[in-house]
């Protein structure tokens, strides 16, 4: 009898690629004189807050 592979090795892998869990934070800045918009990317994070409560010494907002 020839060696046969088990069904688990013949089937394709069931591991599914997942989407990203964080989003890139982008600030939309407007020029005061010409009303032109420019976007500045900061970095990836799950939670972002501008102008929130002040944290302790040496901590960042994002």
Automatic annotation (TrEMBL):
| Gene Ontology, cellular component aspect | ribonucleoprotein complex; ribosome
Which is an annotated GO molecular function term of this record? structural constituent of ribosome
- GO:BP terms for this protein? translation
- Record key words, sorted: Ribonucleoprotein, Ribosomal protein
The cross-references to Pfam families, in alphabetical order and at most eight, read:
Ribosomal_L44
PROSITE patterns the UniProt entry points to: RIBOSOMAL_L44E
Q: Which family does it belong to?
A: Belongs to the eukaryotic ribosomal protein eL42 family.
Name recorded for this polypeptide: 60S ribosomal protein L44
